[in-house]
Write a structure and sequence with these properties.
alpha/beta, Immunoglobulin-like, TIM Barrel, 2 domains, 9-stranded parallel beta sheet, 16 helices, 19 strands, globular
Length: 528
């Protein structure tokens, strides 16, 4: 693509972005009336404020965009930096990564807790991960539960935490020597070896599906996670087996003996499809608020759309990712679109547009983008342009997931460029209306003038958990906002009565509560 053409495309997309951002509101639900709010309001001071219907219904804009980064534990890619670190060292590294995300206005983290049929959490189903201690089955010392630690630390920073699991990989080449505690040895009946030294569960076997489903549901039941996430590893890439077919011929012959008639490719796809649907249904039956996300290889099949060339995941990984999106067996869909905008056979916007056309049930479509293009100015621009293109093409539910967090630490100019550009303003995660439509209760708000500052305090009401607060404040005619994490409970925030730049007076404030699925409470405007 020529420079001139590319510039025109980006200008057009940016125009779409600006137009679409104006339509984003903190809530699409019917607000409470002024009378209803008046019954709940508890404004301190001598003058008890009243609210007209018009004042109550005005709703300032707040940006909605999913901003996440993958944190990989396999091969110690992102965390911990190496096996065998002490508990304190592991926790310090974790907090440093989470602080980076918070400070750069991300709002979610996708954390790998099962890299090779093992656990980075306290599990009775699978052994402690080699990537924690350097020994399969060895718990952290001093003992702690890494997943519990990550969840609490992420939530305290206003970050959703999604657990990332590999459903079938049972031993990675970087996972040390095979241990007696490894599932390869404790459940040999469902395992097959690959030529590159990995071991894989046979996805067609009921015992495999039952075990992996039990692992997922054990986490969902015991941990306060926001989402469950699978990536692109279903049947393994053919390169893992030296180009040879997956070694499941015995399983297929047993299937034929029971009267099965599907071809091998269709039989394999059917096993994966039924597992994906099962996981979605079981999660929703247990905890409807927990999102299920999938991140498949970015190309469904070559020729879809016509200009696209590359690996055929439908035939190579036996992953019919288009079907999962069409059927709504996911809450968010994150195809790995790791190619550049002008890489014609795998063009980022062309593939994104095709996946959008397949999103017939309007689930969240938040593409995965690669940050590994480097920290040069051209590559920083590429990353920013991809985020902006996503905003322009998907204004109804904006978002991207970044592979991975390491480039943000390796290339400070990349992290800063994103923060100075598209992530300059904080954003809420888009709500998932099909999961929960209930609004949290609006907080009770009080204001008090102390010299040149206004002290704003609020108390949550109702039984629903509040995950975040949005504090709106208006200088002159312009609304701004701050998104605060859950640690701000029954607390105070100080606002200057005038701006430092042009001495505009603080004219109004308002606070809304955000629930776990992104729903926002009604808004009330308090004039100052």
């Amino acid at each position: 693509m020529s420079t001139n053409i590319r510039s025109i495309v980006l200008m057009l997309l940016c125009g779409i972005v600006l137009k679409s951002c104006k339509s984003i509101k903190p809530s699409t639900s019917t607000p409470k009336t002024g009378v209803e709010f008046q019954q709940e309001a508890n404004v301190a001071g001598e003058d008890h404020m009243t609210f007209t219907e018009e004042q109550f219904r005005r709703s300032p804009e707040v940006m909605r965009e999913f901003r996440a980064a993958w944190i990989a534990t396999v091969a110690n890619i992102n965390w911990p930096s190496k096996p065998g670190l002490s508990t304190q060292e592991q926790q310090e590294e974790a907090l440093k990564l989470l602080d980076l995300l918070k400070d750069h206005h991300y709002n979610a983290v996708i954390f790998q807790v099962r890299p090779q049929a093992d656990a980075l959490y306290n599990s009775s189903l699978e052994p402690w991960s080699y990537f924690l201690s350097g020994e399969v089955g060895k718990a952290p010392e001093p003992w702690y539960d890494p997943l519990s630690f990550w969840i609490e630390a992420a939530h305290d920073r206003g970050l959703e935490l999604h657990v990332w699991l590999n459903p079938y990989r049972s031993h990675h080449t970087t996972g040390g020597e095979l241990s007696p505690k490894s599932l390869v040895n404790t459940h040999p009946e469902i395992m097959v070896p690959l030529k590159n030294g990995m071991w894989w569960m046979d996805p067609s076997k009921k015992a495999t599906q039952d075990h992996s489903a039990a692992v997922v549901m054990d986490i969902v039941k015991r941990y306060d996670v926001d989402g469950v996430h699978f990536d692109d590893y279903f049947y393994p890439y053919t390169s893992y087996n030296d180009g040879q077919d997956f070694p499941d011929s015995i399983s297929y012959q047993n299937y034929l003996k029971t009267g099965g008639s599907l071809s091998i490719p269709d039989w394999r796809r059917d096993a994966v499809n039924s597992f994906v649907q099962r996981i979605y249904n079981e999660i929703k039956a247990e905890k409807p608020k927990v999102k299920f996300g999938l991140s498949p290889f970015g190309i469904w099949r070559p020729g879809h759309p016509s200009s696209i060339a590359g690996m055929d995941q439908y035939d190579a990984l036996y992953a019919d990712a288009k079907l999962w999106l069409n059927m709504g067996w996911i809450d968010y869909f994150t195809p790995q679109l790791y190619w550049k905008i002008n890489q014609i056979p795998q063009s980022f916007p062309v593939l994104l547009g095709w996946w959008k056309s397949e999103n017939t049930l309007n689930r969240h479509l938040w593409p995965g983008i690669s940050l590994y293009h480097g920290g040069g100015a051209e590559n920083v621009d590429e990353t920013i342009n991809q985020i902006m293109i996503t905003r322009g093409m998907l204004p109804e539910s904006m978002g991207t997931v970044h592979w991975s967090i390491s480039p943000l630490t390796t290339y400070p100019n990349l992290a800063q460029g994103i923060l100075n550009g598209p992530y300059k303003k904080q954003a809420l995660v888009p709500a998932s209306s099909w999961l929960n439509s209930k609004l949290p209760d609006a907080p009770k708000v009080r204001t008090k003038i102390e010299g040149q500052k206004v002290v704003v305090s609020w108390d949550p009401i109702g039984s629903e958990e509040v995950f975040k607060w949005v504090v709106f404040y208006k200088y002159g005619q312009n609304w701004e906002y701050k998104i605060l994490d859950r640690t701000y409970k029954a607390t105070e925030l100080q606002l200057h009565r005038t701006t430092n730049e042009n001495q505009l007076a603080l004219s109004a404030i308002g606070i809304t509560a955000i629930g776990r699925t992104g729903n926002q409470s009604s808004f009330n405007e308090i004039e100052m």
